[in-house]
Amino acid sequence: MDLGLNGKRVLVTGGSGWIGQGICRAFAAEGALVAVHHHRNEQAAKRLAAELPGPGPGPGPSAVAVGGDLGTVEGAEAAVSAASDAFGGLDILVHCAGVWPPEPLPLWRLSPERIEATLRVDLTAAFLAAGAFLRQLETQRQEHGNLVFIGSTAGIFGEADHADYAAAKSAVIFGLVRSLKNEIVRIAPRGRVNAVSPGWVRTPMTRAALEDPTLDLERRITRTMPLRKLATAADVANQVVLLASDTASGHVSGQIVTVAGGMEGRILHE
Predict the structure, then answer these.
(1) N or C: which end of the chain has fewer CB within 10 A?
(2) Closest to 200 measured CA to CA, from 172, 169, 173, 233
(3) Which residues pair with 11 in a beta bridge?
(4) What DSSP state is assigned to residue 214?
(5) What confidence category does residue 33 fall into, taking pLDDT thresholds of 50, 70 and 90?
(6) Angstrom distance (rounded) from CA 220 to CA 19
(7) Closest Cα to residue 173, out of 244, 57, 258?
(8) Which pLDDT tens digit goes with each residue over 186-199?
(9) What are the tens digits of pLDDT across the range 139-193?
(10) CA within 13 Å, CB half, 223
């Protein structure tokens, strides 16, 4: 199926990360022009941009690396402006940038500093990146525009000892997505806003925890899933691309698609 993404201009925040890289590759495979955002990992973003296939000969690049601290207005504007300047505008923003604090702490032991840091990266940055993209979209005066946020099952079911992360992701996929779906149409009448919420994904960041025999994480995690496996970056990326396609999902807005093997908030397997 032709998803109609050939030549679409896409900015993927957190594109230098593991899941972000998968999303960038999936869009590039559909012929999209991809801006790979990074905050600190500039070299990884540049390497990926150089590797991505493009839609063919054209007046500009098919992929670029752009930087910026999305936790600041200046950084978010810089990333969006750089991507827009490279491609002559933007059609799609995938907000994948975020952090999962690895140290498990109950709320009564969470410091104000950690709460503030998590909310800035996982919630404030979502506001600022989306705002910068929507301001750009407003200047383009076009019919379509797409925003896809990467959430988490933690934002749906909660996550003990990571209340800061769960609360931030919940705010994004419920409050922000369902508000912006009504706002985007004021500037792009066919504009859409959705979220993809993965469960546990196999990444270099999660590998150590998943392979620690004392934690027995994979068995414990998959007890709540009918499909007893963890997601890959490609599993997440494919859903993002599908939601961003006006051909495949043109009448889908304000939705949360979970990519978690059917995870429920209860034990399904002994």
Answers:
(1) C
(2) 233
(3) 35, 93
(4) T
(5) very high
(6) 23
(7) 258
(8) 999 999 999 999 99
(9) 999 999 999 999 999 999 999 999 999 999 999 999 999 999 999 999 999 999 9
(10) 9
